[in-house]
């Protein structure tokens, strides 16, 4: 090896000094001292609106009018059939309801699924699935609210509770369909009075009755519209109901893509339709 090469190898380490690494300056409270609060709930309070935009950005993300965001933000509840926790809006709420005298001998209350979530009274929850509830694994006895077993004020016997699986399957689907039909008819009356042009925005819900489409629930970006909005399409063709089809495609249709619904204005109807589609899949 020549002298020049030896000199190069000896001096190589002297010419290149190690660069001192520095941690980047982090402004977000979500990352600062993460190891101290990870796994613990924290409430961030901002007194200045500029602080909020600095952390979250100028975009509010539109979560208040986003169907999926509202469902996922609902309180967590335990699915009594599988013993797992899910957002409440993805489950069916169950309550004990009094039975009128003489209709069922020896039965005082009935275990019934609720169409909409209610905060009052004792309740339990089960997965929103017709296929599961029709199967052999679904046991209604485990759905009785725990308060019946643990409370000293209750004197109910399990034999006094009516547990009919049909209330959770065909009857529940029928009740959902009838409630949705009623709301659609009310929407007809409202739109006839308002008669206002509709603008499609991000996270609007588009109600359709499209027999050609194979999808019940779709998240679509409408590129043919100027603002290119992202919308949620709910297709009610699975009801196989001509009267609902005429309501959606003729009377209620307020845009070439279908019936445009605003979540903040039509929240009840949107959630019932979404619940029915999930239940029937």
Q: What keywords describe this structure?
A:
4-stranded mixed beta sheet; alpha+beta; Required for respiratory growth protein 8, mitochondrial; Rrg8; 281 residues; 2 domains; mitochondrion
Summarize the model shown.
This protein is of the alpha+beta class and 281 residues long. It has 2 domains: 71-168; 172-280, no CATH class.
Written account of the structure:
Keywords: Mitochondrion. Required for respiratory activity and maintenance and expression of the mitochondrial genome. The protein is α+β, with helices and mostly antiparallel strands and 281 residues long. It has two domains: 71-168; 172-280, no CATH class. It contains nine helices and ten strands. Strands 5-3-4-6 form a four-stranded mixed sheet, with no helix packed on it. Strands 8-9-7-10 form a four-stranded mixed sheet. Strand 8 (217-221) and strand 9 form a beta hairpin. Helix 7 runs parallel beside helix 8 and helix 7 packs antiparallel against helix 9. The longest helix has 25 residues, at 170-194. The N and C termini lie far apart (77 Å). The mean pLDDT is 84.
Number of helices in the DSSP assignment: 9
Overall average pLDDT: 84
Total domain units: 2
The helix/strand class is alpha+beta
Distance linking N and C termini: 77 Å
List the uncertain runs: none
* Major β-sheet strand ordering: 5-3-4-6
Task: Determine Rg (CA atoms, Å).
Answer: 28 Å
User: Which percent band covers the strand fraction?
Assistant: 15-25%
* Succession of helices and strands: HHHHEEEEEHHEHEEEHEH
The helical percent reads: 25-40%
**Number of strand elements:** 10
Assign an overall shape: extended
* Major beta-sheet overview: 4 strands, mixed
